[in-house]
């Protein structure tokens, strides 16, 4: 039997309380959810359309990083293959001091991200319309933390740690399932730690962290 959708007021009240949001932050999340549903009807940003799914599987899951990393000490964060903005836009709403780089090669998703940045009045965000390999080859700068919600595998992400890459000293946070097994070579060379957390009615999920030794 399909689960009944919770009333919107209850969904948002629970989300606000569990994450300690201000009224301004809550309004940004609410606007984000509305824009996601509207845009999703025309360009397939996500398979999740219901409000409870958006709040839990996108927003809450993205914010799980704050339990594993002290984000108050992170200055610049880059999202690899960010798509509709997960996980980094929810993190930016909660931690407005973050300087954000959105790495997204698909044009329709870039258009959506520009709309989100404008309508949510988010500053200190750079949209980078490059694929991952081109980004690593053709850009340079200081990034403290790269994040990715399974936009690509850990082998491809580990290109960050090549000797000629200007970002090789950064750390990567990677969203995976509880049963995920790391590629053996990547595990041996770069896997720093994992962090398990509860997600959606006590389901377990995991964050994997990589860094060059």
Describe the structure.
It is a single chain. The protein is α/β, with parallel strands linked by helices. It has one domain: Rossmann fold, CATH 3.40.50.150. 39% of the residues lie in helices and 20% in strands. The protein is built from eight helices and seven strands, in the order H-H-H-E-H-E-H-E-H-E-H-E-H-E-E. The protein has helices at residues 8-19, 23-43, 51-63, 88-94, 107-119, 132-138, 154-157, 184-189; strands at 76-80, 99-103, 125-128, 145-148, 171-177, 191-199, 203-211. A seven-stranded mixed β-sheet has the order 3-2-1-4-5-7-6. The longest helix has 21 residues, at 23-43. The model has no long low-confidence stretch (mean pLDDT 93).
Radius of gyration: 17 Å
- Count structural domains: 1
Which outline best applies?
globular
The percent range for helix content is: 25-40%
Q: What summary fits the major beta sheet? A: 7 strands, mixed
**End-to-end separation:** 49 Å
Lateral strand order in the biggest sheet: 3-2-1-4-5-7-6
